[in-house]
Amino acid sequence: MSTYAQKKGFGATVWDYLTTVDHKKIAVLYLIAGGFFFVVGGLEAMFIRIQLAVPNSDFVSAGLYNQILTMHGTTMIFLAAMPLLFGFMNAIMPLQIGARDVAFPFINALGFWLFFFGGVFLNLSWFLGGAPDAGWTSYASLSLASEGHGIDFYLLGLQISGAGTLMGGINFLVTIINMRAPGMTYMRMPLFTWTTFVASALILFAFPPLTVGIFLLMFDRLFGSNFFVTAAGGNTIIWEHLFWIFGHPEVYILVLPAFGIFSEIIPVFSRKRLFGYSSMVFATVLIGFLGFMVWAHHMFTVGLGPIANAIFAVATMAIAVPTGIKIFNWLFTMWGGSIKFTTPMHYAVAFIPSFLMGGVTGVMLASAAADYQYHDTYFVVAHFHYVIVGGVVFAILAGTTFYWPKMFGTMLNETLGKITFWLFFIGFHLTFFIQHFLGLWGMPRRIFTFLEGQGLETGNFVSTVGAFFMAAATVVLVINIIITTVKNERVGNDPWGDGRTLEWAIPSPPPFYNFKQLPLVRGLDPLWIEKMEGKKGMTPAEPLGDIHMPNASFIPFVISFGLFVAAFGAMYRLDYGWGLPVLIIGLAITFGSMFLRSVKDDHGFHIHKEELIDEDDNKGVKA
Amino acid sequence: MENNQTNTGNATVDIAYRRKKNAEEMRHQVITFTLMIFLTIVAFVAVGAGMSGWFTVPFILLLAAVQVAFQLYYFMHMSHKGHEAPALFLYSGLLVGLITILAFVTIVWW
């Protein structure tokens, strides 16, 4: 946990995490919350697969199935994959650029708590009259017809957690632009930092359309406006555009950091510098750029006309080019390298063909004419699970194993890690490969059951068996984490032995100020350069001096809690008399605490250099 | 500011250089300010003259774009060193926004 080797009570630890502004602790919070929602979304996936295991199943009812399906997608994208990646970005990116924290530690904490309360609000719908049931895309024609408060939970929950994500993205951008260590030029930044940068830029531009769309839909549902109500002159297609202008970049927001994680793992375990670094950077930026020009490929069957469809089809296929550059660069990095097949490397090697298959079906789907056949079938389901599980989830699992020692100072068990990998890898392909064919055989997506004798029984049963393999893999991972934490065998700076970037030059876990002296960066893979010249660590770029640190604060939690309360008020305003007062009270809490933050000067504190020297003497290790 | 960071080691030269730079900047700002007032008057005249809306609306929008550029480059110092990142993000945002508007205008509404 922290570097002061003092025992803290449970209550003190909880309070520490509730008020922390330290990027490493916020990373842990993101990982815990994201991991929790990952399990929730995984359970929902299991219910889906159990329901579809046999024809005419009545494991869940049709209405409940719609809710489970909607919440599976929404939870996995917004509350599991993004926060888990944010966890890694928070934990690793500042270390990789040689910074002592992110640019705005307070906003970092605020971003986390907003995400957390938004996610909790969304999931409370299960206990308060039913979850949203219009799919994760929540198309307006469906969601406006949905009864009860499910969709309102979706709208308000995503609005709150989306604000948190947007803050996080801006924070990362400012950090990377302003807080790089001396010598860390843009073209010396590790690929994970680069992908964090581009993904954050995508967040900056993609989340506002979502915010606007959600606001319009919220006005339609809660305040009687008619933006998407066709009967009153609105246009339901506008929601689809707004959603996908956000939704398509969102896919790259997820997959670019995943690319980044693999671009770190592959050079370390091939013990060779990343092949074609500058083309990797170029490809990352190009993917981010093209990601905004392709959203209408989700809407080919809406009837945009042949010209619009053709433009978006060609733009979509163009993305295959930079992605192909990346695939070849990873292969060439491994080529001729002295490869160590550790658990993270297993994921990296498996990721390349798995993700490639998702990419190939992506190009198939991009041909607008053919898409009329694939649209809304299980072919699409198979495609995006190959991209998101084969790309993002593999990266999250690989990153968990790879960065676990850096974050917690102890190594996950390699044998159990490899068991997790094989179970997950086999289960993943078993579940989703057959779904391509189910789709081509005519199984529509989002149906809650199917009839006997249509040739869909075997495929669906195989798919369900695969899902259980993935569940078993997750259980093994949890066991691994528990065993590792209980054993608690501490490791040194560079536990994998071949670390190349700055994060491996400091203790695991790093002290709360990260770098005693900011390191001097002399090229790409700075630690590797020093190692090759026979040095033990980085050369400092500054004399030992006082370090300015921010104070912990409980205000981010309170601001987010206020919005959480206000969301209930906004939702129940029309049903109950207490709705409006609760809305006002919630907003008062939020704005009151923001006001308090503005008027109260908080200058942080200094760690004096004498204390830093003392620590040196005690440990005999130089950071 | 950014343009004052020259350091030749010779204080007199530095001050002379800075004074020259500042005077130049001031002249630009005054010229731009006059132009902006002139463009504003032109915009009002265009509306007041009672010409067809198909001319007036695009014309005023063009004037607005010029005004924004003046504002950014002459008053908010975007031409100076150290503003590359804000400029990059400004233009990327503009691009994304314009593509969205273009798409809505062409395939949703017309």
Automatic annotation (TrEMBL), chain A:
Pathway as given in its UniProt record: Energy metabolism; oxidative phosphorylation
The reaction(s) this protein catalyses: 4 Fe(II)-[cytochrome c] + O2 + 8 H(+)(in) = 4 Fe(III)-[cytochrome c] + 2 H2O + 4 H(+)(out)
Compartment list: Cell membrane
Residue ranges of domain Cytochrome oxidase subunit I profile in the record: 9-522
Main location group: membrane
InterPro entries: Cyt_c_oxase-like_su1_dom (IPR023616), Cyt_c_oxase-like_su1_sf (IPR036927), Cyt_C_Oxase_1 (IPR000883), Cyt_c_Oxase_su1_BS (IPR023615), Cyt_c_oxidase_su1_bac (IPR014241)
GO terms, molecular function: cytochrome-c oxidase activity; heme binding; metal ion binding
Gene3D superfamilies linked: 1.10.287.70, Cytochrome c oxidase-like, subunit I domain (1.20.210.10)
GO biological process, one term: aerobic respiration
Keywords: Cell membrane, Copper, Electron transport, Heme, Iron, Membrane, Metal-binding, Respiratory chain, Translocase, Transmembrane, Transmembrane helix, Transport
Cofactor field: heme; Cu(2+)
Cellular component, GO annotation: plasma membrane
Membrane topology: Multi-pass membrane protein
Annotated EC: 7.1.1.9
Matches recorded under Pfam families: COX1 (PF00115)
Parts of the chain that traverse the membrane: 27-48, 68-92, 104-128, 153-179, 191-219, 242-262, 274-295, 307-332, 344-366, 378-398, 419-441, 461-483, 554-572, 578-596
Biological function: Cytochrome c oxidase is the component of the respiratory chain that catalyzes the reduction of oxygen to water. Subunits 1-3 form the functional core of the enzyme complex. CO I is the catalytic subunit of the enzyme. Electrons originating in cytochrome c are transferred via the copper A center of subunit 2 and heme A of subunit 1 to the bimetallic center formed by heme A3 and copper B. Cytochrome c oxidase is the component of the respiratory chain that catalyzes the reduction of oxygen to water. Subunits 1-3 form the functional core of the enzyme complex. Co I is the catalytic subunit of the enzyme. Electrons originating in cytochrome c are transferred via the copper A center of subunit 2 and heme a of subunit 1 to the bimetallic center formed by heme a3 and copper B. This cytochrome c oxidase shows proton pump activity across the membrane in addition to the electron transfer.
Family: Belongs to the heme-copper respiratory oxidase family.
Protein name: Cytochrome c oxidase subunit 1
Gene: ctaD
